[in-house]
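ok trying again, last paste got cut off:
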Amino acid sequence: MKIINAIKKINPNAEVVVRGNDINTCEIEWHNGTTPISKADIQVQFPIVEFDMAMEDLRAKRNKLLADTDYLALSDNTMSEAMATYRQSLRDITEGLTTVADIEAVTFPTKPE
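nice, full thing came through this time. structure:
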C-alpha cells in the first residue's frame, strides 16, 4: 500500500499494479498510458506517505474518543469545564506534528469522570 500511495503522491491519476511490498524487488505495471515513475522517485515519497498514514491513524483514534463524548455536547446537556477542556485537547492533538516520531510520542488526555 505504501508504494501505491507514494505513486499517487506523484501522479494521482496513475493506473498501476504493484506486486510486492519491497520497493527494491517489487514489480510495477503501468497501465493506460501512465508514465512510469522511477523506483528512486517513488521511494523519496515514503516519509511523506508514512507521515500521512500515521496522522490518519491518530485522527481515527482521536475521532473515536470525541464520538464517545459527543452526547455530552448536545444542547440539552451542560458540559463540565473538565469535559470541555478534554474535548478541546483532543481536537488540538494534531497541531504542530511534523514527523512520525512526533505522532508516536502523542499522549492522549485522560477522560474526566
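cool. The longest helix spans residues 46-68. The chain has five helices and two strands.
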